[in-house]
């Protein structure tokens, strides 16, 4: 029986397909995927995705080639033998496979950890963040309740606004909390996502790089009108931000008197339960 | 005896311990509990009088309904008889005829078919909910159901699929075939085996009753404190999942005991069919994970019914506690859904590749490794929750590490295809599709396990696409593979091949066309479980909805196949149509009541296919990725 060298064919086809597909995915597709480069966190996530695509693409290409080849070459032909080859395994292949996948996994975990160390990559890190950015960050409190977000600026007298504006190029620390059920503060373009838990101060860092509006969504099912809990924020220049915040301070001055004192979290309705 | 039963008039046969009595006593029990609950609350809290928000009444109603249902089916007979010193009262299992499918029956073959029909019923109900969800999402603003009903549909679809389908493969196929594969004649605990099935049916019915009580707005995760705030339609969620949890635990105990202690002589661990390894690992996960679910739901029930505050931050509890407990169950749970699929694929592959299973030990290591690791990853569901930010690298690593044993399962499958002689039957097509679907699911899982990437995709449609690829692509495809593969043995009838292939291609193509775009929708900023979305996402959502409708229609092809093949054509199946070497195919069809006349002894694993390679062949190996 004259068997062609299937293994060599598959390897060559895999290498060729990977060599074509990987540069296209890594250089053209992945960098242009959301969330884009509007902020430090967003561009970090895009970089992360690009590297992951760079690893996944050749693996996917090889698996695809293997199956495409095998399903055609190893099909049962009407005039051919009915039974396959009775091999029951190969120690060498198994060990190599195990070694390669383990190395990939260790690399992925190490890479992810390094990337995460960059100020937590825009994710909510709880009251005591493990990964902080360099320098000072402007705190902005995000208060979630059914079914809207409001924002407090402790550096500007703790005023509460119904709209989120951020100065461009300024490191921001979002302090996300909730007044009732669990919500999640998600600004896709900024690359920020942090759950809003009642009684918890969940901190997420981001530095917006572009002056533009951005969408805000609640990302955790929070009851009936969850689908309507969205908002639009705005990244503006320093001068415009100061103008806006001073205006807000003036407009909300009467409200400031009845607002609760700025705090990391609030319990508006002390619960009668004790158990 | 059997002849006498057959001659009785119809009404006489309906009386006794069967499904009908179960339903009647269940309804009676419900109203007893309901009345009792109102008595309790009317005395303590006058507020609840004449309102329909009385959680205690509903919970008691469900408890008494389940007790009445099980009592009516006859589950109390044996324990009661033993308590008063009598032996087995009645031929519980060995009744003949159609009637045995509607009562407590201890024949594992009957329970398997009961499971197949019961699970199939709820699978189609939950699938119909998905169709309704996609109907609503045709428009960016709610036009059909409105926000509240939409959330109930989402919750029903998710909860029913995640709950009932835990037994999707193990219930019908492991109960039926594990005893046959290991030459055991029965499961270790036949009454418990029947109990797991009827508990599941009670659970599914209870979940459906949420429609009478206003539904629930929490999705299948039922996070606190939203679950405390939800109206009393949520109580049906609690009882549904608690009953499913009990059913899972018992099913797991039964599987483990059967496989560990009832194998035929000569069936060593090295010769155990790989499907049994899948069932064994799944059973272990069920036993270890499901009790946590029952416990956490008990706490939720107390929070709602008895005003405790386990999960209420404002009164000293912690919502994180709920999330931790829930996902400690929830992550093994998704492997409870996936692992039987691994077993089915690796079991069926050698039969149609006409080769021995490649790397038996590799495959076992893969399945067992996934099962073990699944307990160490649950906090990846909490990556942006603000809990334990310093532990994130660990959970990132442990989650990514699961791809190593999963890779071993892939290796075993790919090795089995190497220089095979593949026969493209319908079950084989479904198994091959598994590789594609699970690879897409696994590769997207790499992105979700990486924390920075996860921040972008967490809780979005990207996640939804991911777990539909792993669970629908991983479990439902293998569920159908198992149906097409084993129905000839279970019903003695071949399913139509042509309709089967139409079903497969329609399902495979529309499945991918439904769920692949969801990755894009997630990246573009569409959160899960929203009833509205930005209008620029509408074209893609319409595409997904239409694909979903085609996917739903492909299920109708399957139903048509079942009706045509089982009721109309009735092409009798030979006792071993696939030419399999596995033990269960060596029995005559239909299988005798006692399975094996003589105790089988086993001297090899069931994968003795293929022609031995003449010389050792160097450099022959599957491609490594």
Descriptive overview:
The complex is a heterodimer of chains A (275) and B (625). Chain A contains 5 helices and 10 strands. The mean pLDDT of chain A is 92. Chain A is α+β, with helices and mostly antiparallel strands and 275 residues long. The radius of gyration of chain A is 26 Å and the shape is elongated. A 5-stranded mixed sheet of chain A has the order 3-2-1-5-8. Chain A has a 5-stranded mixed sheet with strand order 4-10-9-6-7, covered by helices on one side. Chain B has 21 helices and no strands. In chain B, α6 (108-136) packs antiparallel against α7. The longest helix of chain B is centred in the middle third of the chain and has 35 residues, at 319-353. Chain B has helices at 2-7, 10-14, 19-44, 55-73, 77-83, 108-136, 147-164, 170-181, 190-208, 226-229, 234-261, 274-305, 319-353, 360-373, 392-401, 403-417, 426-449, 451-457, 461-491, 497-523, 538-569. Helix content of chain B is 64%, strand content 0%. With 625 residues, chain B is mainly alpha-helical. The interface between A and B is large, with 119 and 108 residues.
Total helical segments of chain B: 21
**Mean pLDDT across every amino acid position of chain B:** 91
In total, the number of strands of chain B is: 0
Unreliable runs of chain B, pLDDT <50, ≥5 residues?
1-5, 615-625
Using the alpha-carbon principal axes, give the shape of chain B: globular
What's the CATH topology label of the largest domain in chain A? Immunoglobulin-like
Order of SSEs of chain B, N→C? Answer: HHHHHHHHHHHHHHHHHHHHH
Q: Specify the helix fraction band of chain A.
A: 25-40%
What percent strand of chain A? 15-25%
Strand content of chain B: under 5%
Summed up, the helix count of chain A is 5
In whole angstroms, how far apart are the ends of chain A? 78 Å
| Major sheet characteristics of chain B | none
* Main sheet characteristics of chain A: 5 strands, mixed
- Whole-number average pLDDT of chain A? 92
- Tell me the strand order in the biggest sheet of chain A: 3-2-1-5-8
């Amino acid at each position: 029986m004259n068997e062609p060298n299937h293994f060599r064919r598959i390897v060559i086809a895999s290498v060729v397909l990977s060599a074509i597909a990987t540069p296209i995915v890594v250089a053209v597709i992945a960098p242009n995927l959301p969330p884009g480069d509007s902020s430090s966190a967003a561009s970090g996530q895009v970089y992360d995705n690009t590297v992951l695509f760079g690893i996944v693409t050749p693996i996917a290409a090889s698996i695809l080639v293997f199956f495409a080849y095998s399903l055609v070459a190893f099909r049962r032909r009407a005039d051919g033998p009915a039974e396959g080859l009775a091999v029951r395994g190969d120690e060498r292949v198994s060990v190599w496979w195990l070694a390669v996948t383990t190395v990939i996994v260790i690399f992925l975990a190490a890479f992810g950890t390094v990337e995460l160390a960059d100020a937590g990559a825009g994710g909510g890190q709880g009251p005591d963040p493990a990964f902080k950015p360099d320098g000072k960050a402007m705190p902005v409190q995000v208060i979630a309740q059914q079914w809207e977000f409001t924002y407090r600026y402790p550096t500007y007298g703790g005023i509460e606004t119904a709209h989120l504006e951020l100065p461009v190029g300024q490191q921001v620390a979002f302090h996300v909390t909730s007044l009732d059920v669990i919500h999640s503060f998600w600004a896709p373009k900024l690359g920020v996502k942090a759950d809003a838990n009642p009684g918890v101060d969940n901190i997420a860092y981001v530095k917006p790089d572009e002056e533009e509006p951005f969408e805000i969504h609640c990302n955790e099912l929070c009851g009936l009108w969850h689908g309507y809990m969205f908002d639009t924020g705005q990244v503006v220049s320093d001068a415009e931000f100061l103008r806006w915040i001073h205006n807000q301070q003036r407009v909300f001055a009467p409200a400031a008197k009845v607002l609760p004192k700025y705090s990391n979290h609030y319990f508006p309705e002390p619960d009668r339960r004790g158990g | 005896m059997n002849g006498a039963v057959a001659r009785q008039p119809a009404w006489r046969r309906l009386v006794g311990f069967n499904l009908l009595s179960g339903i009647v006593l269940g309804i009676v029990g419900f109203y007893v509990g309901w009345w009792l609950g109102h008595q309790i609350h009317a005395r303590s809290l006058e507020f609840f009088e004449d309102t329909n928000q009385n959680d205690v009444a509903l919970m008691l109603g469900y408890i008494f309904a389940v007790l009445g249902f099980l009592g009516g089916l006859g589950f109390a007979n044996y324990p009661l008889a033993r308590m008063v010193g009598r032996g087995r009262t009645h031929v519980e299992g060995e009744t003949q005829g159609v009637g045995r499918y509607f009562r407590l029956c201890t024949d594992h073959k009957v329970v398997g078919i009961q499971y197949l029909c019961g699970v199939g019923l709820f699978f189609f109900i939950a699938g119909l909910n998905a169709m309704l969800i996609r109907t609503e999402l045709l428009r960016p603003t709610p036009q059909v159901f409105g926000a509240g009903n939409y959330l109930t549909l989402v919750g029903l679809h998710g909860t029913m699929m995640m709950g009932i389908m835990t037994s999707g493969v193990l219930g019908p196929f492991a109960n039926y075939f594990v005893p046959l594969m290991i030459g055991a004649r029965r499961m270790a605990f036949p009454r418990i085996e029947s109990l797991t099935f009827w508990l599941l049916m009670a659970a599914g019915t209870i979940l459906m009753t949420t429609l009478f009580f206003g539904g629930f707005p929490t999705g299948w995760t039922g996070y606190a404190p939203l679950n405390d705030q939800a109206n009393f339609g949520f109580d049906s969620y609690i009882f549904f999942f608690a009953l499913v949890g009990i059913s899972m635990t018992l099913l797991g105990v039964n599987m483990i005991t059967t496989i560990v202690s009832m194998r035929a002589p000569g069936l060593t661990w090295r010769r155990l069919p790989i499907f049994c390894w899948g069932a064994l690992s799944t059973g272990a996960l069920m036993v270890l994970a499901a009790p946590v679910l029952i416990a956490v739901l008990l706490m939720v029930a107390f929070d709602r019914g008895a005003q405790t505050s386990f999960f209420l931050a404002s009164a000293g509890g912690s919502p994180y506690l709920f999330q931790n407990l829930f996902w400690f169950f929830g992550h093994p749970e998704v492997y409870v859904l996936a692992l039987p699929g691994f077993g089915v694929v690796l079991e069926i592959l050698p039969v149609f590749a006409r080769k021995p299973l490649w790397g038996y030990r590799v495959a076992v290591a893969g399945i067992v490794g996934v099962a073990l690791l699944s307990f160490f990853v649950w906090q990846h569901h909490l990556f942006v929750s603000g809990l334990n930010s310093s532990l994130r690298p660990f959970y990132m690593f442990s989650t990514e590490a699961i791809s190593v044993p999963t890779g071993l399962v892939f290796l075993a499958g790919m090795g089995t295809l190497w220089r095979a002689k593949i026969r493209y039957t319908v079950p084989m097509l479904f198994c091959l599709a598994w590789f594609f679907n699970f690879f897409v699911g696994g590769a997207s899982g790499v992105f979700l396990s990486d924390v920075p990437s996860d921040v972008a995709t967490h809780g979005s449609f990207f996640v939804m696409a991911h777990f539909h690829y792993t669970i629908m692509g991983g479990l439902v495809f293998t569920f159908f593979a198992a149906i097409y593969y084993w129905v000839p043995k279970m019903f003695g009838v071949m399913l139509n091949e042509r309709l089967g292939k139409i079903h497969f291609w329609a399902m495979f193509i529309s499945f991918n066309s439904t769920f692949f775009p969801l990755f894009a929708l997630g990246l573009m900023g569409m959160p899960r479980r929203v009833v509205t979305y930005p209008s620029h996402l509408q074209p893609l959502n319409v595409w997904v909805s239409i694909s979903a409708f085609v996917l739903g229609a492909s299920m109708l092809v399957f139903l048509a196949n079942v009706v045509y093949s089982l009721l109309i054509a009735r092409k009798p199946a030979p006792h071993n149509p696939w030419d399999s070497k596995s033990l269960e195919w060596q029995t005559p069809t239909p299988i005798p009541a006692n399975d094996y006349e003589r105790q089988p002894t086993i001297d090899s694993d069931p994968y003795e296919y293929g022609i031995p390679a003449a010389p050792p062949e160097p450099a022959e190996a599957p491609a490594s990725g």
